[in-house]
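[step 3/7] inverse_fold.run input=structure_tokens len=480
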């Protein structure tokens, strides 16, 4: 079954069916047991009434055996000989003996001869081999049949043992009809068999309707997602139901996912457009210079062409690194001493005499885990930005702070306005002042630095230095 509604309806129906069948069997067993116990109690009362008469010495022919049809009675001695029976009892089973006529030796006045003398017929085929010994205190109950006045029926027999005044031990079997029990059980069973299919149909129908109503918002979500997929319009949103259940949370999560996806696609489109724009400028300049050089070799600006090529190469490297970061490239797990790394980067720049003077203040033994090349790229980008905007000097410090390592790069320039401190970390973003002084920057340095910091489990924030310039603080978790 491919339908959730069908599976839910079938599952609920099966569960209810098993529960109803189990409950029905339990009811039938309890009902049958109660009615059988009631019949046994009636049989015991009838048997004890006859036993009371025998205990008082009433002769067998004078015994009052009550209603023979309702409570057939059979009295037998210790040898299994029948000494008294109900008048209309024609056949019996389940009492220990099938005899329904008193034995000749059990005539009135012969009680003293019936206390254990074996009759010649004591073991004949009239005795039931299943006859049990009866406790004198606790009656024994058996089920059997009796034919009274030509009608055979099922009975519950109670066996009561009694000792007469002449020390003759007798067993009284009295029965109570089981017709009421059988009729009640049959009626309940028929009602259950008739009502069970109807109830299961009702359960299946109600489950189908309730599940259909509950899953209706899911179908709306599916249709809207199919429409979004067909139109590729990520600005659409799925309907959110007013309920606070799982379906409503699914709709909200779906809309949040669509919002993130739309922002990611828009960012990717802007990235591609900005990258194309940034690549177009050096490529066009380089082509122009080469075309002029091809037509007029004496006018070829070789240093300019080299500068454009270097700029194009740096831009391509930045775009490649961003692409790797977006693809989820792992930063690595190398052990990097940030103090040593910062000194190496600063020493190379000092040797190349690039920009204003840079002072370094660091602590020893501040190690982090990650990619040495990417972290060097972050420090280099921060130094590039600081030297580009500094007036005379740039200060770099490396220190431990609350379980982490902080690298701060400060300059004495104009600083970053408060409203731009988050935007400068976006890709291809350059402030107007920076754009006028920029000699080739594409606005990717700070974006790369922040992405690398985040993927190393750290942060990169912009602030104000003590001298009023810009302050960039890189925080990374310290290696244990």
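[step 3/7] decode complete -> sequence:
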């Amino acid at each position: 079954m491919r339908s959730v509604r069908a599976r839910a309806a079938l599952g609920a129906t099966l569960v209810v069916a098993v529960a109803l069948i189990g409950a029905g069997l339990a009811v039938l067993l309890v009902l049958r047991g109660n009615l059988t116990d009631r019949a046994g109690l009636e049989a015991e009362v009838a048997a004890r009434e006859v036993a009371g008469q025998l205990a008082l010495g009433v002769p067998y022919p004078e015994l009052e055996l009550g209603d023979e049809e309702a409570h057939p009675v059979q009295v037998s001695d210790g040898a299994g000989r029948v000494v008294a029976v109900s008048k209309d009892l024609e056949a019996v089973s389940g009492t220990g003996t099938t005899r329904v006529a008193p034995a000749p030796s059990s005539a009135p006045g012969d009680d003293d001869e019936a206390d254990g003398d074996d009759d010649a017929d004591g073991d004949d085929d009239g005795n039931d081999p299943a006859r049990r010994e009866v406790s004198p205190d606790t009656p024994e109950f058996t089920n059997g049949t009796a034919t009274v006045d030509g009608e055979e029926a099922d009975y519950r027999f109670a066996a009561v043992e009694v000792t007469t005044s002449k020390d003759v031990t007798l067993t009284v079997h009295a029965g109570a009809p089981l017709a009421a029990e059988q009729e009640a059980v049959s009626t309940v069973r028929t009602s259950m068999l008739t009502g069970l299919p109807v109830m299961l149909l009702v359960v299946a129908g109600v489950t189908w309707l309730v599940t259909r109503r509950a899953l209706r918002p899911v179908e709306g979500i599916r249709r809207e997602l199919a429409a979004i997929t067909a139109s590729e319009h990520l600005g659409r949103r799925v309907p959110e139901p007013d309920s606070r259940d799982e379906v409503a949370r699914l709709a909200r999560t779906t809309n949040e996912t669509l919002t993130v996806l739309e922002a990611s696609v828009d960012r990717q489109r802007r990235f591609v457009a900005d990258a194309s724009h940034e690549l177009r400028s050096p490529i066009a300049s380089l082509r122009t210079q080469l075309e002029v050089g091809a037509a007029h070799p004496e006018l070829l600006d070789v240093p300019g062409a080299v500068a454009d090529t270097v700029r194009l190469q740096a831009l391509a490297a930045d775009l490649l690194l961003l692409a790797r970061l977006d693809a989820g490239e792992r930063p690595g797990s190398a052990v990097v001493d940030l103090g040593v790394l910062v000194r190496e980067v600063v020493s190379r720049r000092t040797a190349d005499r690039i920009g204003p003077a840079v002072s370094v203040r660091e602590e020893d033994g501040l190690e982090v885990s990650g990619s040495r090349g990417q972290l060097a790229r972050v420090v280099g980008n921060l130094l590039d930005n600081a030297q580009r905007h500094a007036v005379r000097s740039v200060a770099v410090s490396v220190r431990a702070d609350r379980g982490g390592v902080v690298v701060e790069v400060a300059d004495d320039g104009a600083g970053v306005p408060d409203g731009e401190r988050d935007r400068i970390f976006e890709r291809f973003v350059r402030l107007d002042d920076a754009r006028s002084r920029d000699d080739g920057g594409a606005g990717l340095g700070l974006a790369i630095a922040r992405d690398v910091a985040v993927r190393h489990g750290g942060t990169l924030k912009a602030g104000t230095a003590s001298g009023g310039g810009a302050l960039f603080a890189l925080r990374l978790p310290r290696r244990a």
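[step 4/7] annotate
Residues 106-133, 433-438 have pLDDT under 50 and may be disordered.
The longest strand covers residues 151-163.
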